[in-house]
Amino acid sequence: MKFHYPYQKIVDLKSSEKTQAEWLLSAAIGKLQAEELSLEQLLEQRAIWTRRIQEAAETAVPLAELQLIQTYLDALDARISRKTAEVREARQAVDRSRSHLTDKMKDEKVWMKAKDRAFDQFRSAGLKREQNELDDMATARFVMAAR
Q1: Please, what is the average pLDDT of the chain?
Q2: Which domain holds residue 103?
Q3: Domain contains 146
Q4: What gap in Å lies between CA 130 and CA 112, rounded to an integer?
Q5: Distance, CA of 105 to CA of 17 (rounded, Å)
Q6: CATH number of the domain residue 83 falls in
Q7: Is residue 75 part of a domain?
Q8: Is 87 within a domain?
Q9: Which residue in 22, 25, 50, 63 could disulfide with 97, CB within 3.0 to 4.6 Å?
Q10: What digits encode the pLDDT tens for the residues 65-94?
Q11: In b/e form, how buried is each residue of 130-139, taking b as 16+ CB within 10 angstroms?
């Protein structure tokens, strides 16, 4: 007799939900990495422009050009602030996705353990049934031999 678990569809659903949660976590991590890379590039740009303004201040450069560079630096600072907030949000999204995945993994594990217990009971019942049949055969042989 073949083992048939009546709640197999639920086990499959829980497994599918876990896989989906893994994909969501992967996407969140990818977004976080992209945001961090973008922030790093902005910080590099800021360092370059900060050096330029320092070099310009040391040489004879028109004040208008210094003001223009400073305006650009201010705009870069604003972009860096926004990007830092986006990185923070992306980290929070990764944390939420990890938590969601953990919940789905626990859910799947509970259902898999229930399936394993049901299989163990099925196997135990089969072994008991087989042992009873062997006992009946042995008893029948003993009775036949005693006659």
Answers
A1: 95
A2: 8-107
A3: no
A4: 27
A5: 9
A6: 1.10.287.1700
A7: yes
A8: yes
A9: 25
A10: 989 999 999 999 999 999 999 999 999 999
A11: eeeeeeeeee
Contact 24, 97 (CB under 8 A): yes
DSSP for 34-74 reads: HHHHHHHHHHHHHHHHHHHHHHHHHS---HHHHHHHHHHHH
Does some domain include residue 125?
A: no
Give the Å distances, CA to CA, from 30 to 76, 78, 129, 135: 24, 24, 55, 63
**Domain total of the chain:** 1
Q: How far apart are the first and last CA of the chain?
A: 35
| CB-based contact 14:111 (threshold 8 Å) | yes
How far, in Å, CA of 114 to CA of 108, rounded? 10
Measure the CA–CA gap between 50 and 76, rounded to whole angstroms: 11
The closest alpha carbon to 77, from 32, 35, 33, 39, belongs to 39
> Cα–Cα distances in Å, from 51 out to 9, 45, 54, 146?
63, 10, 5, 108
The angle, 0 to 180 degrees and rounded to 10, between the axes of the packed helices 8-58 and 63-146 is 160
The tokens of 72 are what? 């650009």
For the stretch 110-134, pLDDT in tens is: 999 999 999 999 999 999 999 999 9
